[in-house]
Design brief:
Layout (H helix, E strand, L loop, with lengths): L19 E12 L2 E12 L3 E6 L5 H8 L7 E6 L2 E2 L5 H9 L1 E4 L11 H12 L5 H14 L16 H12 L6 E5 L7 H18 L2 E5 L3 H7 L2 E6 L2 E6 L1 H4 L5 H8 L1 H13 L18 H5 L2
Helix pairs in contact: 3-4, 3-5, 4-5, 6-7, 7-10
The chain binds adenosine-5'-triphosphate.
Length: 299
Amino acid sequence: MTDPESAPPHANVDGKAGDVVIRIRGLVNQFGEQTVHDGLDLDVRRGEIIGVVGGSGTGKSVMMRSILGLRKPNAGEIEVLGIDARSPDPLLRREIERNTGVLFQDGALFSSLTVGENVQVPLKEYHSDLPDSLRYELALLKVKLSGLPADAIDKLPSQLSGGMRKRAGLARALALDPPLLFLDEPTAGLDPIGAAAFDRLIRTLQQALGLTVFLITHDLDTLYAICDRIAVLADKKVIACAPIEEVEKLDHPWVQEYFHGPRARAAQVARDKNQHPDAKHERGGRDADRRTDEDASAR
Ligand SMILES: Nc1ncnc2c1ncn2[C@@H]1O[C@H](COP(=O)(O)OP(=O)(O)OP(=O)(O)O)[C@@H](O)[C@H]1O
């Protein structure tokens, strides 16, 4: 761990795929009498898309907030790229912030700023020395990378569809080229075709940019289509963290209900239909163009 007294803080952004980039041990989170996490452990590996699932109120968002240092846990250790996420040191806090992009559920865009201005907010904070024209060009690059048309850059969030707002939020999350991307329910509120397209975008960006993605979702299609491993929150802990084929078999009432109900069956059918023998990285390969009405209605 870097000693902020003797050396500038430096996140461990280089390394090989599979290295642990987020390490949680013995996490405890309480709100008054309510214990949300009690001795939760989790390792997130470099280069993976980890899907975080669990019933409503099991503490998925609280875990994400703890990792990002937005909430101080009651106990436990959290390291993000080798930095102690519980540290109050502003330099360490800033280092974590600079290396993590976050897409919150509601997009969290500033409504009075254009898309381009929203994307430039982190650029202004961390690269204030850049000329305005270059910052604009960088914002435009992120807007295009997120699958938006170039002219979206000058629009207000209220002038965009829900799916486009998500993409704008993604463009802002990617503004600083962070190695870690956090997504809270990215496909919530999107229609099935829009959700499938967003899944593909995430997978494509993750591969192209070498991102590690921490993805909270209730969306079974997303889990089957793009997640390398699934972390299941239940009983105040992560009770399993494994590829979906293993997690499905877990003898736990919530897991059984979630992964073997009618919605799960539809998602599995979609996955099996779309799986292509040559698709090395596509786990499920949910493909909007090939979705059936049955699949769509099961979402
Ligand atoms: N600031 C807070 N003050 C009090 N209780 C809180 C606070 N934040 C979260 N909680 C409680 O912690 C529990 C976990 O909340 P969290 O939002 O992490 O759940 P979740 O798993 O993300 O749920 P969902 O899937 O419904 O979004 C809930 O019971 C919630 O009410």
